[in-house]
Write a structure and sequence with these properties.
alpha+beta, 20% helix, two-stranded antiparallel sheet, 152 residues
């Protein structure tokens, strides 16, 4: 059998396991659906159409105690190992500023907000290990059978 190896996969001769620090999830917003709904499956009351915002190192371990082996479908859109940082640029309506080149001219402004960083210290091993930890935790959440979609 062929095994993919990278720096960090083994520590002290044993396969490294993902960090598991379950944190409580907090409801920030509740949006009620209008009209008739089917009741959720037993044990999943309150979990229908829930969006969880956070880092997978905290979210996935937080889901394990309640949902281990119960998730039927997961979709992930991981970073692509581009080596770049990405930001959201929002144009702000033009305002009179001292930077305008001619009297009466207005200079456009933008608000730049960091969205996410796809920077791994230039090391493919770091990225592959991150991906490995993610899939190990997802596998523990998935039911038998289940489907995992990975956007690559």
């Amino acid at each position: 059998m062929i095994e993919l190896l990278w720096d960090g996969k083994y520590r002290d001769g044993r396969r490294a396991t993902p960090l598991r620090v379950p944190l409580p999830l907090e409801n920030l917003e509740l949006v009620e659906a209008t009209g008739q709904r089917e009741p959720p499956p037993p044990g999943l009351e309150g979990w229908r159409n829930r969006l969880i915002w956070g880092d997978k190192r905290h979210v996935l371990p937080s889901l394990l105690p309640e949902f281990s082996g119960r998730i039927q479908l997961a979709y992930i859109d991981p970073p692509f190992y581009t080596g770049a940082g990405f930001s959201l640029v929002t144009p702000i309506p033009t305002l009179p500023t001292a930077r305008a080149s001619a009297p009466g001219e207005r200079a456009a402004s933008v608000l730049r907000q960091n969205a996410y960083r796809d920077i791994w210290g230039g090391q493919l091993d770091t990225y592959v290990h991150w991906f490995y930890e993610t899939t190990v935790l997802l596998r523990e959440l998935l039911a038998e059978p289940a489907t995992l979609y990975v956007h690559l």
